[in-house]
Specification:
The chain is mainly α. It has a single domain (91-462), classed as Growth Hormone, Chain: A (Up-down Bundle), CATH 1.20.1250.20. It has helices at residues 42-50, 64-79, 95-123, 129-144, 149-152, 158-174, 182-210, 216-244, 249-270, 291-317, 323-351, 353-376, 381-396, 399-408, 414-425, 427-442, 444-462, and strands spanning 2-5, 12-15, 80-82, 273-275. The strands form two sheets. Strands 1-2 form a two-stranded antiparallel sheet. It has a two-stranded parallel ribbon with strand order 3-4. The longest helix is centred in the N-terminal third of the chain and has 29 residues, at 95-123. The chain is globular, with a radius of gyration of 27 Å. The N and C termini lie far apart (66 Å).
C-alpha cells in the first residue's frame, strides 16, 4: 500500500495502485529473429484478454487520464472482435445469433405495417386509387437507389448501418398513425422504406461474409424460418387483438415499431463489432464475370413484383376475400415457411444451387400457368389458395441465388455487389406494376402468362450455373482457372 502526503493538509492518504503487469522473463521473450518463441497461441491469448484479466490493464501512473485511457482501450478490445475469434464467445453473442435477432426484429414492424396499411389509408386517410399508386411508387424508390449503401460505407460500418436502418424502420412505423395525411404518409413511407431496403442490402452482405460456405444454405433457411415466425406472431396478434381488445391503428403500429427499435438498440449494446476476414471495397463494382448473377436478379425482381402486386389482388377481386380471410392465408404461408425453410436450406446444401434453382423456376412456371388457368378455365378458390402457399415456398428457394454468389464472388466484392444487385432487382419494380396494371384490365390471365414466360427465361439462365460454382467457374461457358502447380 502506497502512502502519499497531501500537499494542502499534510495528511497522509492511501492510494490503491492498479495491478502491474509483471515483466516478461528472458526465456519467454520473443526472439529477435521473429521466431515468436514464448508467445501465447492466438486463441488462448484472446480468451485471456476477453475474460477481463486484470493483468491486461497497464499502469503508467495513478493519474485519472491514464485510468481513462486504460478503460477506453479495454472497451475497444471488448467491442471489436475478429470474425475468426467470434467462436470463442458465448453462443448468444456470435454473428449468427445477431443475424437471428435482426431476422426477428425487422418483420415485427414491417409485417404489421403491411397488414394494416391498406385499411388505414382507406378508413382514416381517405385515400383513392391515385393516392395509393403514388404511395407504392414512393415505397419502391429507395430499393432502386440501394446502391447508395456503397457511399455510406465510407462513413459507417455495415453492422452499424444495419442497426440504423432498423431504427429508421421501427421509428417510422411507430409514428405512421400520427400523420394520417397524404404528405405525412408519403414521408413516413419513404423513411420506413429507406430503413427496410438498406437493411435488406446490408443484411444480405453480412450473411454472405459471416456464414461459412458449407453451411450457409441451411443457416439462411433458419433465418427465413425465424423471420416467418416473427411475422406469424405479429399477424396472429392483430387477428386476435383487433376484435377482442379493440386495438387502434395508433396502438398497433406504435407497439410494433417500438419493439423493432428496442431490439435494434439491444443488438447494438449486447453484441460486439465483428471485423470481417476481408476488407470490403467501397466503390461501385460491376464485373462482367457476374453477369449471370445480375441477370437472375433482374428476372427474380420482375417475377416477384407480379406475384406481390397481383396474386393477393386476384384473391380479393375474383374470390371476394375479406381482410380476416386474406390474413389467415398469410398466416398459413408463414407457418409453412417455418417448417419448410430449414428443409429447403438443407436441400440446397445437398443438391447444390443449380438443381435447387431449376426446381424453383420449373415449379414457378407451373404455378403461374395454373394462376392463368383460374381465369381461362374457371378453377376454384381452393386451388387459388393452395397456389398462393406453394408460390411462397418456391420463392423461399431463392436463397440458392445468394449462396451461388457467395461461391463465385471475390470476398472483397460482397458488400458493393449486394448493393448493385439489390438495385438491379428493383429496376422492374419502378415500371412493371403500372404497365401490367393496364394489361390486367384487358386480360388478367395474360399477366400470369407473362410471369410464366419470365420463369422460363430464368430456367434457361439457371442451366448455365455450374454444378460446383467457384471463382473462375461462374458459368458453364467458362473453364475453371487452373491453379499453380
Amino acid at each position: 500500500m502506497e502512502r502519499r502526503r497531501n500537499r494542502r493538509g499534510g495528511r497522509e492518504s492511501r492510494i490503491d495502485p492498479l495491478p502491474i503487469r509483471p515483466a516478461p522473463r528472458k526465456d519467454d521473450a520473443p526472439s529477435r529473429h521473429g521466431d515468436g518463441a514464448g508467445r501465447q497461441p492466438r486463441r488462448v491469448a484472446f480468451k485471456e484478454k476477453f475474460s477481463g484479466n486484470r493483468s491486461f490493464v497497464r499502469r503508467a501512473s495513478v493519474r485519472p487520464r491514464h485510468l481513462m485511457r486504460d478503460c477506453v482501450l479495454r472497451g475497444m478490445i471488448r467491442f471489436f472482435i475478429p470474425l475468426d475469434d467470434a467462436g470463442d464467445l458465448p453462443a448468444w453473442r456470435r454473428p449468427f445469433s445477431l443475424l437471428l435477432l435482426w431476422a426477428v426484429a425487422m418483420p415485427i414492424a414491417f409485417a404489421v405495417w403491411v397488414a394494416v396499411l391498406q385499411n388505414f389509408v382507406i378508413e382514416v386517410a381517405n385515400f383513392d386509387g391515385s393516392d395509393w399508386g403514388w404511395l407504392q411508387s414512393v415505397r419502391e424508390i429507395p430499393g432502386f437507389f440501394a446502391v447508395g449503401v456503397i457511399l455510406l460505407l465510407f462513413v459507417v460500418r455495415e453492422q452499424i448501418l444495419a442497426v440504423i436502418s432498423l431504427l429508421m424502420l421501427g421509428a417510422a412505423v411507430a409514428v405512421t398513425a400520427e400523420y394520417p395525411t397524404f404528405g405525412g404518409l408519403l414521408l413516413t413511407t419513404l423513411i420506413s422504406s429507406i430503413g427496410f431496403h438498406y437493411y435488406e442490402t446490408v443484411n444480405q452482405s453480412l450473411q454472405l461474409q459471416w456464414l461459412p460456405k458449407d453451411r450457409a444454405p441451411e443457416m439462411i433457411g433458419w433465418l427465413l424460418a425465424a423471420g416467418s415466425g416473427a411475422s406469424l406472431v405479429a399477424y396472429g396478434a392483430i387477428v386476435v387483438g383487433w376484435k377482442t381488445f379493440g386495438w387502434s391503428y395508433s396502438a398497433v403500429l406504435g407497439v410494433a415499431g417500438a419493439i423493432t427499435v428496442a431490439l435494434a438498440l439491444a443488438s447494438f449494446v449486447a453484441y460486439p463489432q465483428y471485423n470481417s476476414r476481408t476488407q470490403q471495397r467501397r466503390e461501385f463494382v460491376l464485373r462482367r464475370r457476374y453477369w449471370l448473377y445480375y441477370a437472375l436478379q433482374f428476372m427474380s425482381g420482375a417475377r416477384r413484383q407480379i406475384f406481390v402486386v397481383f396474386a393477393a389482388f386476384m384473391m380479393v377481386e375474383r374470390f371476394g376475400f375479406e381482410v380476416h380471410e386474406l390474413t389467415a392465408l398469410f398466416l398459413l404461408n408463414f407457418a409453412a415457411n417455418i417448417v419448410f425453410a430449414p428443409l429447403i436450406g438443407k436441400l440446397v446444401g445437398h443438391f447444390g444451387e443449380r438443381r435447387a434453382l431449376l426446381i424453383e423456376y420449373f415449379g414457378l412456371i407451373c404455378v403461374f400457368l395454373a394462376y392463368g388457368g383460374i381465369y381461362y378455365f374457371g378453377w376454384g378458390v381452393v386451388l387459388a389458395a393452395a397456389l398462393y402457399v406453394i408460390d411462397h415456398l418456391f420463392f423461399a428457394m431463392a436463397l440458392a441465388l445468394k449462396t451461388y454468389f457467395q461461391k463465385i464472388a471475390d470476398p472483397a466484392d460482397i458488400a458493393p455487389t449486394a448493393a448493385v444487385a439489390f438495385t438491379i432487382n428493383h429496376i422492374a419494380a419502378v415500371f412493371l406494376p403500372a404497365a401490367l396494371g393496364y394489361l390486367w384490365i384487358v386480360s388478367p390471365g395474360a399477366v400470369f402468362g407473362l410471369a410464366a414466360g419470365m420463369s422460363a427465361v430464368s430456367l434457361c439462365l439457371a442451366l448455365m450455373i455450374p454444378r460446383h460454382p467457384c471463382m473462375g467457374q461462374e458459368t458453364v461457358l467458362l473453364r475453371r482457372v487452373a491453379g499453380p502447380a
